[in-house]
C-alpha cells in the first residue's frame, strides 16, 4: 500500500488502495486501505483498519474499527462497530458494538452491545445495554429454527411416500 493520501471526489473507480483514503460523492467497486473515510459513496466492498461511512451505501464492509452514520449496509464485520441512524442487514463485531442509535439492524452479534432506540430481528450478545426492540432473542430463534426444521423434515418424510 502507498503511504500517501488518496482522494476521490465526484467520480467512479473500480479499485482504490492506499493508506489514507478519502472518497466523496462517488461510486467505487472495491476500497482497501488503512484509514478509509467515505461521504455519500456507493461501494461494493470496503476493507480497512478504520472505516468511517457517512450517508453511504455498501454491500460488504470489513474493518477493525467501523463507524456507520446515516447509511445503508448489507454486511458489516468489525472488531468494534458504531452504527447511528442507519440500516444494516447483518452487523457482526468480534468485541463490541459500542453504539447503536436510532438504527434498524436485521442480525446483530457481538460480545457487548450498547443500543438506544434500535430495532433488530435477531440479537446475539453476552451483554446488552439500552432500549432495543428485538423480534427474536436466542431462545425464540432456537425454537423458531427447531420448528421450521421439524416442518421441513416432516414434509420431506411425507413426500417420499
What does this 3D model show about the protein?
This protein is mostly beta strands. The protein has one domain (5-159). The chain contains 1 helix and 6 strands, in the order E-E-E-E-E-E-H. It has one helix spanning 138-159; strands at 5-9, 12-54, 57-69, 72-84, 87-101, 104-136. Strands 1-2-3-4-5-6 form a 6-stranded parallel sheet. It is globular and about 65 Å long. The mean pLDDT is 91.
Question: Any low-confidence stretches, pLDDT <50, length ≥5?
Answer: none
The helix-and-strand class reads: mainly beta
Number of strands: 6
Cα-to-Cα separation, first versus last residue? 61 Å
State the strand order across the main sheet: 1-2-3-4-5-6
Q: What is the N-to-C succession of helices and strands?
A: EEEEEEH
Total domains, how many? 1
Mean pLDDT: 91
Large-scale geometry: globular
- How much helicity do the residues have? 10-25%
For the biggest sheet, the summary is: 6 strands, parallel
Helix count equals 1
Estimated radius of gyration: 19 Å
Strand content: over 45%
How is the topology of this model organized?
Layout: E1 5-9, E2 12-54, E3 57-69, E4 72-84, E5 87-101, E6 104-136, H1 138-159
Parallel strand pairs: 1-2, 2-3, 3-4, 4-5, 5-6
Amino acid at each position: 500500500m502507498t503511504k500517501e493520501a488518496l482522494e476521490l471526489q465526484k467520480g467512479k473507480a473500480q479499485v482504490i488502495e492506499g493508506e489514507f483514503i478519502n472518497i466523496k460523492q462517488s461510486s467505487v467497486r472495491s476500497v482497501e486501505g488503512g484509514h478509509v473515510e467515505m461521504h455519500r459513496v456507493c461501494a461494493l466492498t470496503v476493507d480497512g483498519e478504520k472505516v468511517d461511512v457517512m450517508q453511504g451505501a455498501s454491500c460488504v464492509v470489513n474493518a477493525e474499527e467501523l463507524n456507520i452514520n446515516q447509511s445503508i449496509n448489507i454486511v458489516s464485520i468489525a472488531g468494534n462497530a458504531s452504527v447511528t441512524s442507519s440500516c444494516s442487514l447483518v452487523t457482526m463485531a468480534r468485541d463490541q458494538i459500542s453504539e447503536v442509535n436510532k438504527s434498524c439492524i436485521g442480525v446483530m452479534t457481538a460480545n457487548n452491545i450498547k443500543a438506544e432506540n434500535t430495532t433488530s430481528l435477531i440479537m446475539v450478545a453476552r451483554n446488552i445495554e439500552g432500549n432495543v426492540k428485538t423480534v427474536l432473542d436466542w431462545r425464540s430463534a432456537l425454537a423458531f429454527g427447531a420448528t421450521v426444521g421439524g416442518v421441513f423434515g416432516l414434509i420431506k418424510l411425507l413426500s417420499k411416500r
